[in-house]
Design goal:
This protein is about 0% helix and about 45% strand. It is mainly beta and about 130 residues long.
Length: about 130
């Protein structure tokens, strides 16, 4: 059974940093693309970052480019999203997702439509 478990969310002051983790079990994460998505109350889900199979490519939404960094540790079968210079508008529940059909484009919109494996989410709240 495949499981994705996010952790690392919490309260952060604007301008601060946070690292989210996505621990994966049941598949070899290196062989899959993976995306980070977020959803704020009353807003649609947004793809914020993705990393391709064997880290071949990474891509970011314009809203987080230069502030967020996606990475993975193959030995730990874990992906990360490092948030720097956090803004109030980054407040949302953050999810990691993957799947056989998930594709990380080199540029452009990151879609979660093809991801069929999702974590439960972790809340990030940026507030002073």
């Amino acid at each position: 059974q495949v499981q994705l478990v996010e952790s690392g969310g919490g309260l952060v002051q604007p301008g601060g940093s946070l690292r989210l983790s996505c621990k994966v079990s049941g598949l070899i994460l290196e062989d899959y693309g993976l995306g980070w998505f977020r959803q704020a109350p009353g807003k649609e889900r947004e793809g914020v970052a993705c990393i391709g199979v064997r880290s071949s490519v990474s891509n970011y939404a314009d809203s987080v480019k230069g502030r967020f960094t996606i990475s993975r540790d193959n030995a730990k079968n874990t992906a990360y999203l490092h948030l720097d210079d956090v803004k109030q508008e980054d407040t949302a529940v953050y999810y990691c997702a993957t799947g056989n059909q998930f594709y990380c484009p080199a540029y452009g919109r990151i879609s979660g439509a093809a991801a069929d494996l999702w974590g439960q989410g972790t809340q990030v709240t940026a507030s002073s």
